[in-house]
Amino acid sequence: MPSRRVLPALALSIASLLPSACVGAPDDADAETAASTAEYPVEISSCGVTTTVDAPPTSAVTLNQGATEVVLALGAEDQLVGTAYLDDAVPDRWQAAYESVPVLSEQYPDHETVMAAEPDFVYASYLSAFDSEAAGDRATLHELGAATYVSPFGCGTGASTRDITFDTVWQEIADVATVFGVPERADRLREEQARQLDALRREAAGEGIEVFWFDSGVKTAFAGAGDGGPQLVLDAIGATNVFADVEGGWADVSWEDVVVADPEVIVLADAAWSTAEDKIALLQRDEVLSQLDAVRHERFVTIPFSESTPGVRLVEGATSVAEQIRALGLR
């Protein structure tokens, strides 16, 4: 799985952006409007690295599902020449668009594979995509003509991101939309998701409920902590994250701490590399963990990992968690 163990300081964004993107594929009129409103060159900064984009990418590569789905939601799949690294299934509404783009690797492609696609822009959800064993360092890619961008949630600097909000999520989408020359699509996405989020906050389906967000792990629990997607989701529905005081988007916590917290509900991130089914089996077979209130009463909530990480599907994740908690009938 991608490296997510230390999550990040907020990246600098494009100063002139109008925040936001559109969930469905845009029509031809959208494309004409985009071409007329986009302004280049664009200087873009992420994770402390600045690069300049002189024109809309025509041969972009996305690394990590979150990055790929942002581009698909913007209707810019025709500007992609490669993708890599899914955590789970791409939604049906984007499946045809996804299948139109070559898959460079099941996980991270190496530098030679990336460069063979002749990219002019490389966009990743995590800084680990630019390791020497993967796409290669960003400075080298820039020298070779490929601009780069990393999600502000994936910088891996270890600095706290306590000021993150859904605005941060939408700003990433706006950054990418501006690079691809379709800023108005990001605006529409933001408006739509803001309405959904307002409704979730008014309902507050999780109010008064203590939740443990279980991402993965066996010897320790890799938990949703206080600075990432899980915290944003739980805040949106009014639930309490039992590890909200832990810095980072995700963090290793001891099973002893989980037992002490004794959550009422456990949210399970379902990913190819750590399925919800496997996590439930671990909890139920352990002599101590099986006595947790949530485990004894089978109060599990399951969402795809891709709806738990900041990106275009995070509001969907919040909606799904709210619906499942409501179905548990705790309040």
Task: Write structural notes for this entry.
This protein starts with 27 loop residues before the first helix and ends with a helix. Helix 6 (166-179) runs antiparallel to helix 7, helix 7 (183-203) packs parallel to helix 12 (314-328) and helix 8 packs across helix 12 (314-328). It has helices at residues 28-37, 65-73, 92-99, 111-116, 138-143, 166-179, 183-203, 229-237, 255-261, 276-285, 293-296, 314-328; strands spanning 42-46, 49-53, 60-63, 80-84, 103-105, 121-124, 147-150, 210-216, 221-224, 240-241, 250-253, 265-270, 300-304. The strands form three sheets. Strands 8, 9, 10, 11, 12 and 13 form a six-stranded mixed sheet that branches. It has a five-stranded parallel sheet with strand order 5-4-3-6-7. It has two domains: 28-195, Nitrogenase molybdenum iron protein domain (Rossmann fold), CATH 3.40.50.1980; 204-328, Nitrogenase molybdenum iron protein domain (Rossmann fold, 3-Layer(aba) Sandwich). By secondary structure, the protein is α/β, with parallel strands linked by helices.
